[in-house]
Design a protein that fits this description.
Structural class: alpha+beta
Shape: elongated
Number of domains: 2
Distance between the termini: 33 Å
Low-confidence stretches: 1-42, 377-393
Mean pLDDT: 84
Order of helices and strands: HHEEHEEEEEHHEHHHHHHE
Number of helices: 11
Number of strands: 9
């Protein structure tokens, strides 16, 4: 738990602010593991404003390392055959073709109309039309999909199934009958062909399609490498700096930021802080020790970033500042006025500050590209193909 909590503190300055407001929201979503119900009300966190350091001579309290000329490694992940295959398999799963035989088999996609009845009476959310059901997906009530195997296009049949006991108070453990009409039968191809590609993508051939996938994954991997490089640079900057004295206002700021992040985690999990800490075997006394460590960690990051900006003469409204702000507007596709209204002027200023520091370091760094070796059967830059979940009443819970 201690390591986890300190990661939250580091994310605030070296992660969320660095990569923009959109990424900040993403970081917050990834931290939340157990969201509360839709009806729960969570108050918006109070805006915490960083203390101004404009009038503080940071050179007297911050000893910076050599931040120009850093030796850094950019780790490049090559595109694996498995990653390309995963994308192609996902495409095939979502682009079945008409089965000329018109007979439902395991793995096929059956387009069906169905109506469910309990003791002869239709029940709520038990009917649908033109529904694509992948046979073998396991998304419907046990036995439903298996009993469709062998049915022909245009055929109407009754399927008797029993809902699982835990399904619902109305239907749990009950025997029901679904009247099903098979409108169309489609099958998933094992390999793509030019016709399938031309009819369902902007490309004309399989080779063009594969190349587009490789290009997309390459771009993604390069973005990840750049983000990792930026984090590496800032972490090294902070690690190599020394703080002679911590202003009390900056420590208090770090404390509030850290406490708020922990409170947000507990709120989204529908817990008190005590309950959240107890899950990880942490007492309130241990938590207070973590607060002190985290506040100092955040304070150091803030002081170091500001010291570099002050040393390089960054001023709000100058050309470089505006360049960083424009970069943020472009990446978020949001005007600065709207960004300030949504996230607060303080957050935007910090974002610009860290972008500036990042630029200074990377523009002057000695960067070595390192090609990572891929382990066997690894998937990079692409998720394994997965079937979409069904959301209709016959679905088994």
């Amino acid at each position: 738990m201690k390591k986890y909590l300190l990661i939250l503190a580091t994310v605030f300055t070296l992660g969320a602010v660095l990569t923009g407001c959109g990424a900040a929201e993403k970081e917050k979503e990834e931290v939340v593991e157990t969201p509360v119900g839709e009806d729960a009300e969570i108050e918006a966190p109070e805006a915490i404003v960083a203390p101004s350091l404009d009038d503080v001579d940071l050179s007297k309290i911050v000893v910076l390392g050599e931040y120009k000329g850093m030796d850094l490694e950019r780790k490049i992940t090559p595109v694996s055959a498995e990653a390309i295959d995963a994308q192609i398999n996902s495409f095939l799963l979502n682009t079945p073709v008409e089965d000329e035989d018109g007979v439902v088999d395991d793995g096929d996609v059956a387009n069906i109309d169905y109506e469910g009845k309990l003791e002869g009476v239709p029940f709520e959310r038990g009917s649908d039309q033109d529904f694509d059901l992948r046979i073998g997906s396991g998304g419907f009530v046990p036995g439903f999909e298996e009993k469709l195997i062998g049915a022909k296009k245009g055929e109407t049949l009754d399927i008797n199934v029993t809902f699982p006991e835990q399904y619902s108070e109305e239907l749990g453990g009950k025997d029901v009958v679904f009247t099903v009409t098979v409108n169309e039968v489609k099958r998933v191809l094992e390999e793509p062909n030019d016709e399938l590609i031309a009819n369902n993508t902007e490309y004309q051939t399989v080779e063009e399609f594969k190349q587009s996938i490789e290009d997309e994954i390459t771009e993604y991997n390069e973005q990840m490498a750049s983000q990792e490089l930026s984090s590496q640079a800032l972490e090294k900057l902070v690690a190599e700096a020394e703080i002679k004295e911590y202003p009390e206002a900056v420590l208090e700021y770090g404390k509030k930021i850290y406490q708020q992040s922990v409170q947000e985690y507990a709120d989204y999990a529908g817990q008190t802080i005590e309950e959240s800490l107890a899950e990880y075997g942490m007492t309130m006394d241990e938590y207070e020790e973590e607060v002190a460590l985290a506040s100092k960690d955040i304070a150091k990051q803030m002081l170091v970033m500001n010291a570099v900006a002050q040393n390089e003469g960054l001023k709000e409204g100058d050309a470089v500042y505006d360049e960083m702000l424009t970069q943020l507007e472009t990446e978020s596709q949001t005007p600065k006025e709207q960004l300030i209204e949504q996230y607060g002027e303080d957050i935007i200023k910090q974002n610009v500050l860290i972008r500036f520091v990042q630029k200074i370091i990377l523009d002057n760094a000695k960067i070595t590209d390192v090609i990572e070796e891929l382990p066997d059967s690894v998937e990079v830059g692409a998720e394994a193909a997965s079937e979409e979940d069904s959301e209709v009443t016959p679905e088994a819970e």
